[in-house]
From TrEMBL:
EC number(s) per entry: 3.1.-.-
Keyword Transcription listed: no
UniProt KW Hydrolase keyword: yes
InterPro entries reported for this sequence: MetalPrtase_cat_dom_sf_prd, YbeY, YbeY_CS
Requisite cofactors: Zn(2+)
Name the record gives this protein: Endoribonuclease YbeY
Organism: Croceibacterium selenioxidans
Residues the record lists as binding Zn(2+): 121, 125, 131
The organism's place on the tree of life at top rank: Bacteria
Ranges that cross the membrane: none
């Protein structure tokens, strides 16, 4: 998959293109439908203000968020896409710097590790995965994210999920 990357203020200088390419390769390794060479996606590193506007205008949610994904292909179309033919735009992803930086600090991880996670997360959304459908879908998506991040040498961002589930189950008893 080819990524078109645009990095705006307030993202600091860094190797964001390399990081994004590694995250995309890892996502394609765990979700083979993303490995189609015909696919491209745009990735915008931007501000909370821009994400807030996009979230309000496209999702009717009047607040910033960490990552937004705008798929251009339906899941079935992606799965049926042949390996020959013209390029196909998978979709667009946007990451909000201030929210990403705050979340990384709260999680005790680097901004680069958290951004990698969110890029993988966004690409999986573009491929039709959706954690909001059901707990089973959320678990499946998280499992793919964990595997992709491991390829990048990044620790499981959901490392406490089994403990949290156990606590919730214990609380429900």
């Amino acid at each position: 998959m080819e990524l078109e990357i645009d990095i705006e203020e307030p993202w600091p200088e860094g190797r964001w293109e390399v990081l994004a390419s590694r995250a995309a390769e890892a996502a394609a390794a765990v979700a083979p439908e993303l490995a189609n060479k015909r696919l491209s996606a745009s990735l915008l590193f931007t501000s909370d203000g821009e994400i807030h506007e996009l979230n309000r205008d496209w999702r009717q949610r009047d607040k910033p968020t960490n990552v937004l994904s705008f798929p251009m292909l339906e899941r079935q179309g992606l799965l049926e896409l042949g390996h020959t033919g013209p390029p196909e735009l998978l979709g667009d992803i946007a990451l909000a710097h201030e929210t990403c930086a705050r979340e990384a600090l709260e999680k005790g991880v680097s901004l680069e590790a958290h951004a990698s996670h969110l890029i993988v997360h966004g690409l999986l959304h573009l491929a039709g995965y959706d954690h909001e459908i059901s707990p089973a879908d959320a678990d499946a998506m998280e499992t793919l994210e964990i595997k992709a991040l491991a390829i990048c040498g990044i620790a499981d961002p959901y490392g406490d999920r089994d403990m949290e589930k156990g606590k919730q189950e214990g609380d429900a008893r």
